[in-house]
Design a protein that fits this description.
Blueprint: E1 2-6, H1 10-20, E2 26-31, H2 36-41, E3 44-47, H3 53-62, E4 67-70, H4 74-77, H5 80-86, E5 90-91, H6 100-103, H7 105-114, E6 123-126, H8 129-138, E7 143-147, E8 157-158, H9 166-179, E9 187-191, E10 196-205, E11 209-211, E12 216-217, E13 220-222, E14 226-229, E15 234-237, H10 248-267, E16 273-283, E17 286-293, H11 300-304, H12 312-321, E18 335-343, E19 355-358, H13 360-366, E20 369-372, E21 375-378, E22 381-384, E23 390-396, H14 399-410, E24 413-414, E25 418-420, H15 427-440
Parallel strand pairs: 1-2, 1-4, 2-3, 4-5
Antiparallel strand pairs: 6-9, 7-8, 7-9, 10-11, 10-16, 12-15, 13-14, 15-18, 16-17, 18-23, 18-25, 19-22, 19-24, 20-23, 21-22
Bound molecules: glycine (GLY).
The site of glycine (GLY) has 7 residues, from loops.
C-alpha cells in the first residue's frame, strides 16, 4: 500500500515511524522542510507547502497513493481531505467540515451546547470591544481570550497567566480585531477554568472511538509553567494510561465526551474520521473541555504512537472503512517522557541556522526515541529554524525512569544555542500537580 504523509514535524515523524512498522506499506511524504527522520523512511519526498492542495493531489495521483494521513491542522482547514477524496484517494483525516471542531472555536462551543455534551463552560463571542468588556466584567475578569480560528497554539491568553488586568485584555482583543488573529475580527471569551490540564487522543471511524493513554503537555516555555505559550515543550504519560492526578473514572468521562462529540458530528452530517484530540482541565467538579483538535497533538503523539504495537496501516484502513469497533489498540504498558529541544529565543525570537549535532547512536543506546521536527539537515549535523527542532522520548516502567532516560538521551544533543525545559516529567513538578488537584478537591 502506498501511503502519503502530509507534514514534516516531530508529530509526523512519529506517525511515519508507526506506519513504517506496519506490514506492506511504502511511505511517500510531502513537507515544507526536509525532516531527516521522515526522509530516511520515505521512498520519495516532495518539499512543498502542506497547504498547496493542487500540488498535493497531483502528487498523490502521480504516485498512485492509496491512503493519505495528514498531520497538521492547516491543510484540514482548507479541505485537503475533501480534495483527495474527490479523486478517489482514501484519507485518514477529517474533512473541512468535520475539522471545524478545531478550526472554528465558536462552532465547537455551539456544538457542545446543542448536544448537551458534558464539560461545557461559559462562553460568548464578540465583534465589539464594549460588549466584550461587559462579559469580562460578568466573569469577574477571570477569562480566557481566544481567536476564533487557528493560531498554532499560541493565540490563547488567560487572565493572571498572560495578562494582568482589563486594560491588557482590551489591548489584546483590539489586536485580535485589528490583525484578524485566527482569521476573523472576532474574539471568543471563555470563563477561566482552574485545575490540571490533560490530553486524551483517540482514533475515530465516524461512529466509534479507540482512546489512547492520557498525556499531560506543557505549553509554557519556561520551567514551572512560566513564560509565553508555545506549541508544547514536552509531555508525559503513565503506563496504566492514567496520570498521577487523573483517576480511571476521570479518564472514562473524557473518553465518553470524545465519543459524544463524534456522535454529534455524525448528526450534523459531517462524520469524523481520523485522530481526534481532547484537551481537558480536571477541576473539583470534573473535567471541562478546553479545546478539541482535529489531529494528533504535538508533542502528545510522541507519547502514544511509539507504544502502539498494532499494525497502524490496518487501523487507519479500519477508521476509513468504519470498522474500528472490530479493532483493539495494542499498547505497550510503559510510561513516557517527551522533551523538546528548541532554538534559543524560541517563543520570542528564535535563533535560526544554529548548528545542532545529534548523536543518534547515543540516543538509541539509552533506549530513548528521537523525533526530528523543524530542522535543516547538513553534512553531519542539523540546523535550527524558527520552530521546535527535535524531541526525545524516554520510555520506561515509571514516569521517573522515563524522565531519566530522556535526560540521558539529551546528552547526545550538543549545541550552544538550544533550550530545553528540563523540569518536564520530574517528580518535583508532578508532585506539585498532584498536590494542586488535592487542594482543589479539598483533600
Ligand atoms: N499540544 C498541543 C497541540 O498539539 O495542539
Amino acid at each position: 500500500m502506498n501511503v502519503l504523509i502530509v507534514g514534516g514535524g516531530a508529530r509526523e515523524h512519529a506517525m511515519c515511524d508507526t506506519l513504517h512498522r506496519s506490514k506492506n506499506v511504502t511511505i511517500f511524504t510531502i513537507m515544507h522542510n526536509k525532516n531527516p527522520g521522515i526522509a530516511q523512511m520515505s521512498k520519495d519526498v516532495l518539499i512543498e507547502k502542506e497547504t498547496d492542495v493542487k500540488t498535493i493531489v497531483d502528487y498523490a495521483l502521480d504516485h498512485e497513493i492509496d491512503m493519505t494521513l495528514i498531520g497538521p491542522e492547516a491543510p484540514l482547514q482548507i479541505g485537503l481531505t475533501d480534495a483527495l477524496q474527490q479523486k478517489g484517494i482514501m484519507v485518514c483525516a477529517p474533512t473541512k467540515n468535520a475539522a471545524r471542531i478545531e478550526t472554528d472555536k465558536e462552532w465547537m462551543r455551539d456544538l457542545l451546547k446543542k448536544y448537551e455534551i458534558s464539560g461545557q463552560i461559559r462562553y460568548e463571542s464578540f465583534t465589539t470591544i464594549q460588549k466584550a468588556i461587559r462579559f469580562i466584567d460578568d466573569l469577574n475578569g477571570e477569562v480566557a481570550l481566544k481567536p476564533i480560528g487557528l493560531t498554532g497554539g499560541k493565540g490563547v491568553k488567560v487572565s493572571g497567566d498572560h495578562f494582568k488586568n482589563q486594560d491588557e485584555a482590551e489591548l489584546y482583543i483590539k489586536e485580535i480585531f485589528k490583525n484578524k488573529i485566527g482569521g476573523q475580527s472576532k474574539v471568543l471569551i471563555e470563563e477561566k477554568i482552574i485545575g490540571e490540564e490533560f490530553t486524551l487522543q483517540a482514533l475515530s471511524d465516524g461512529s466509534s472511538i479507540l482512546p489512547f493513554p492520557a498525556v499531560q503537555d506543557h505549553k509554557r516555555l519556561q520551567p514551572d509553567d512560566k513564560g509565553p505559550n508555545t506549541g508544547g515543550m514536552g509531555s508525559y504519560s503513565r503506563k496504566d494510561g492514567l496520570l498521577p492526578f487523573l483517576s480511571k473514572s476521570d479518564y472514562e468521562e473524557a473518553a465518553s465526551v470524545l465519543q459524544d462529540i463524534i456522535e454529534a458530528l455524525g448528526q450534523e452530517s459531517c462524520p469524523y474520521v481520523g485522530p481526534i484530540y481532547g484537551q481537558f482541565i480536571l477541576t473539583a467538579e470534573g473535567s471541562k473541555i478546553i479545546e478539541i483538535n482535529a489531529r494528533f497533538g504535538d508533542p502528545e503523539a510522541m507519547n502514544v504512537l511509539p507504544l502502539l504495537q498494532s499494525d497502524y496501516a490496518e487501523i487507519c484502513s479500519a477508521m476509513i472503512n468504519g470498522t474500528i469497533n472490530e479493532k483493539k489498540l495494542n499498547i505497550l504498558q510503559k510510561s513516557t517522557v517527551c522533551k523538546y529541544v528548541v532554538p534559543k529565543g524560541y517563543g520570542y525570537k528564535s535563533m535560526v541556522d544554529e548548528k545542532i549535532t545529534v548523536d543518534e547512536d547515543h540516543i538509541k543506546n539509552t533506549g530513548a526515541r528521537l523525533f526530528y521536527a523543524s530542522v535543516n539537515k547538513k553534512e553531519g549535523y542539523v540546523t535550527t529554524t524558527s520552530s521546535r527542532s527535535l524531541a526525545v522520548v524516554g520510555i520506561a516502567s515509571s514516569i521517573s525512569e522515563a524522565e531519566q532516560v530522556a535526560e540521558r538521551a539529551l546528552k547526545g544533543i550538543q549545541s550552544e544555542n538550544i533550550y530545553i525545559r528540563h523540569d518536564i516529567g520530574t517528580n518535583v513538578l508532578i508532585n506539585k500537580r498532584v498536590q494542586h488537584m488535592k487542594e482543589l478537591r479539598g483533600m
